[in-house]
Structure prediction request, 414 residues.
Amino acid sequence: MESILNQEWVKIIIVVLAGFLIGLDIKTHRIKKDSVSEIGSVRTYAFIALLSYVFAKINLYLYMVGYIALLAHFLLFYYSKLQSKKSGILLFLLTSLVYTFGIIILKYDAWFLIVVFIAIVFISNLNKRLKKFYKIFDEREVETLAKVVLLSGVILPLLPRTNIHEYIPVSFFKVWLAVVVVSMFSYIGYILKKYIFKEKGYWLTGILGGIYSSTATTIVLAKKARTSKSYDLFISSIIIATAVMYLRLLGIAFAFNLDIADKLAIPFILLALLTSFISMYFYHRARRDLNSSLNEEEDQNPLELGTAFLFAFLFIFMASLTHIVLSRYGDLGLNILSFIVGLTDIDPFVLSILSSKFNVTAEAATTAILIAAGSNNILKAIYSYVFSKNKIGVISGVMLIILGILTIGAGFLV
Prediction:
């Protein structure tokens, strides 16, 4: 197939067809807008593409002269647009891209031109969707994301990979890597909740919230459930967030420690399936209410630098505390610590176990993570009742306590 695409006559056909289709797309777009501002007809773009191929095939200097002539033509065209108080240069950009088709297919493979063509069509038809996106987009998130990309791409490679201290068996590199990985897991859920599924049902809120934070999602849903009579729907939504939590923790484990992740895979997958089954049971009982939407408090961006640095501090603290507990009290002390930590935010503790070089076996580490996850389920059960104070809180709380006990039990069986 590759050899056929590289035949000269096939290249000419691809170049001309791509130019023609771009011209057709431009013409269609202009007709819909009732606009008469255009450089030429559909055939014009096919000829521009063919001309670029011929000139590039003959001589690079001739190719450059052709582009200068095209640029001069556009300057005259743009001057006339300015007289009509129009200043857009999209047509010029598209025409310039069409003029590159000839040299692209000569210098690179035909597939590269096809990819460029697809990108042009895709981007040029984004306008309507982008207008809707602009209305809900918070520009501060770009700044936040840029800061984290800077710290991840520039600072992360420069951080030392030796342990911080004898009582802190983890490097600054591992600390910040953990921050980046966990934040990105949370950020995916945050973006999905805020922009992709903004008008969502309660159950979908539970799924997306589980990616972001199952504990925070439980609190939000329990608060909403206080005045609702859709018992089964809220119970299902609260429980599904915990199912996603199991998969989220498993994904983080595979990102940092394959030995521990392999041991966590079976119990976490089984627990996720069981939790999903319970959630689906209540979900099907409440199908008539699934069109309801959730107007919740705005989530905090998980890539905010304040949150990231707090997580880094907690990570180092948990690594130090775990090291001290293990050195003095062994595996039993670690298990007790795991249960206590589960009543707070378990991510820093789980990451310290996965990333640090403790004198502990993979089995003991797996047990500790399962105990922490089970303890966290008990905490969510308490939140579920405290913030709802009705039948929803009671039933979902009982379910979460059962899941917590099963998760802790699984920890002692691995």
About this structure: The radius of gyration is 29 Å. The longest helix spans residues 305-341.
